[in-house]
DNA sequence: CTCCTTGTTATACACTTGTAAAATTAACCC
DNA sequence: GGGTTAATTTTACAAGTGTATAACAAGGAG
């Protein structure tokens, strides 16, 4: 009975490997198929190591949620930054990025659904969710405000736009046969234009 | 060791009791907490009975999905029917019903999320989902057409409206502190009005 | 080269999982 | 009443669950 050989890794490396394995497992097998052993096997690590880096499997899942939302936020931010200075172009870039990889990814959908399903039962997940969506809406409010939308309407518009994009993203990634990413972008942009109509930049 | 007393029930009664118990369990404990024993205890029945009426726990969950989507469809249909003959009122009734019980119910959210998370891995669930959403969009297309919207735009508008309503419903039931049901209705109605603008009934 | 720290594995444990098969008994027919 | 049927419960089982703990060994310090 020979023991498995192993290498000692940096703490951050191991933590990130476990987080990535958790996301991959949630994406591929759902929350039901994501166990301590499944995660650790995917990370190439024995099951016992999980508790050495996290308080438990629930804590690891919460941490994975935090990391995933951060990745999505960065993808959006990068798209906006690449769009240049024109406010409308920046807003459109933000929306369009939601329907392209890495955001519109079936793996991300599965991961996201797993998190949503924990919001009511897991207080830590609920807190992360509230924070994350507050951040998303805040960013959109800023973009809308830059487009000349009245300040009083920005909050409500950000909520509605978030909802529209979320709904399109959801159906697009759940069942890509109904409509395409391009159609989704076009619908969101049309909504945006009718919203900004009559609210010029000065 | 005395056996539990029991009464023989009609097959439909037992099936519906198990379906309702499944929905309740999904709502309260999530997919992870919904086991054969949890479902059957909730239905007041021993665990072995599940297999007597369903092919297994997965089949029962699929059946619960079918029943749940039917309930939501009926709630929408009832709201539309109660709205009278005016096309715009009917459309608004459809949308508003999405943000009120029994549609905007945290229990329903949990059930729905559990089903969505099975769409990619379970072919039966995927088929039910595709059918259901085709039906929802078809109904909306009819309502939009009655409002005088050009036929060519109806399909795209139905997709976008479904997405907006889904997104608002999702966030409203996930975290009711961000905005109210009335605000959600108002946002959807505003979108509708700007869409129908210039498309009178002639 | 040896010691020591600690990252890592292996094992054990009590519990839950879904399902199969047998044992029971309620309800209906005669 | 007795007999029959099948709905229901009970038990059993192999596999999987999360986690605690002990055993090990990798890699640096001296």
Automatic annotation (TrEMBL), chains A, B:
The UniProt record lists the keyword Repressor: yes
DNA-binding region(s) in UniProt: 35-54
Protein known as: Transcriptional regulator BetI
Alphabetically ordered keywords of this record: DNA-binding, Repressor, Transcription, Transcription regulation
Occurrences of domain HTH tetR-type (ranges): 12-72
PANTHER family registered for this protein in UniProt: HTH-TYPE TRANSCRIPTIONAL REGULATOR RUTR, TRANSCRIPTIONAL REGULATOR-RELATED
Pfam families: TetR_C_6, TetR_N
Presence of the UniProt keyword Ribonucleoprotein in the record: no
Gene (UniProt): betI
Domain of life: Bacteria
InterPro entries: BetI_C, Homeodomain-like_sf, HTH-type_TetR-like_transc_reg, HTH_TetR, Tet_transcr_reg_TetR-rel_C_sf
